[in-house]
Amino acid sequence: MKTILKNRHFVNLESLSTTEINSLIERSLAFKRGEPAPDFSDKTLVNLFFENSTRTRSSFEMAEHRLNMYLLPFETATSSVQKGETLRDTCKTLEAIGADGLVIRHGATGYYEELLATLDIPIINAGDGSGQHPSQSLLDLMTMVETYGTVEGKVVVICGDLQHSRVARSNADILKRLGAIVYGSGPVEWYDPAMGIPHLSMDEAVEQCDILMLLRVQHERHDGTTRFDPADYHATYGLTHERMNRLKNSAIVLHPAPVNRGVEIADELVEHPRSRIFEQMKNGVFARMAILEWCFSTKSIKGDDEDDNTN
Ligand code: CP
Question: Quick one: which residues bind L-aspartate (predicted)?
């Protein structure tokens, strides 16, 4: 194992080995079981959210608090971003002031590429446009492993607005790498063949899946020309009561949220015993603690020096 650590950015799961990802899942579950959190009181973080967020921002804040980090306040609405400052200059400024790491959500897919070449402090990607949402994927994996012990061999169907969803893209890639059988479902016009997952109808999906992962329609990333009728969408692509009754007894329902109740899922089913939606939110804090520990720990972590992340 390496003894000198590189700067650990957490921008996608693609750049991590499967051993590192499994270690992160294990650490997330350990924190949930009550493992003491390490003390990072010498670290100052800044959370930069250029897109709205409830869960990701709040759970990163909670994770930073539990790791005893100092959180330097930053609001895009009152910052010099409003005077035309670039993302790169904002980040370089925060690094110069003394930030040890930046948690960033931004609408530009791959925004972090130029930052990786410029900054000497870790970048933690809290979502980039329609690109990746790796901390969401980690908490989703944690929730699946918590339920089944493994994702290997499990049938996962990701349903909805696949083309515009960073959650779908992150999850499809990592689930395939970890041995799950992954399908897509939802409107064919939003199906993205480049994701490399076969398409099922929603009726086929509910009968085959172990894990049904529902997505919100990402209206903010559409060009505004699509006719959208929530009731039609629910009937054709949503999790209705009738479809819920056809799931396997052991199957679970995930959704990254925010949920549009009555659209991708019937209102009352959000709190159904097989829904893990609020458990995912709880798990998000532990997964983000594990991510921050991974970024800032000076200890070697199993899998650091492996090179099994190229597929
Ligand atoms: N799941 C998720 O990313 O939620 P927020 O947009 O509220 O952070």
Answer: 83, 166, 216
Q: Is the CB of 153 under 6 A from ligand 1?
A: no
**Residue appearing with tokens 């929603």:** 202
- The secondary structure of residue 4, as a DSSP letter, is S
Could you tell me the strand order of the sheet in which 44-49 lies?
70-72, 44-49, 101-106, 123-128
196 lines ligand 1 (CB under 6 A): no
How big is the CA angle at 165 (ends 11 and 280), to the nearest 5 degrees? 75
Q: Which residues on neighbouring strands pair with residue 185, listed in sequence order? A: 159, 200
User: How many Cα atoms are found within 13 Å in the side-chain-facing hemisphere of 258?
Assistant: 8
Selection from 284, 286, 256, 11 nearest residue 125 by Cα: 11
Hey, what are 11's tokens?
A: 């921008």
- Per the annotation, the verdict on 164 as an active-site residue is no
Give the DSSP per-residue string, 11-35: S-STTS-HHHHHHHHHHHHHHHHTP
Q: In angstroms, how far is CA 221 from the centroid of its own chain? A: 17
> 165 alpha carbon to ligand 1 midpoint, in Å?
12
Whole-number Å distance, alpha carbon 106 to ligand 1 midpoint, is: 12
Q: What is the pLDDT of residue 304?
A: 54
Residue 3 pLDDT > 50, yes or no?
no
Catalytic residue among 18, 19, 32, 55: 55
- Residue 150: closest CA among 180, 172, 176: 180
How many other CB atoms are there within 10 angstroms of residue 14's CB atom?
14
CA distances from 15 to 19, 176, 188, 196, 308 (A): 12, 15, 30, 19, 9
- The β-bridge partners of 71 are 45
- The response to whether residue 284 sits with its C-beta less than 6 Å from ligand 1 reads no
Please report, rounded to a whole number, the percentage of residues in the chain having pLDDT higher than 70: 94
Q: Which two tokens stand for residue 45?
A: 């973080």
Q: How many other CB atoms sit within 10 Å of the CB of residue 153? A: 10
Please give the helix or strand (H or E) that residue 184 lies within, else none.
strand 181-185
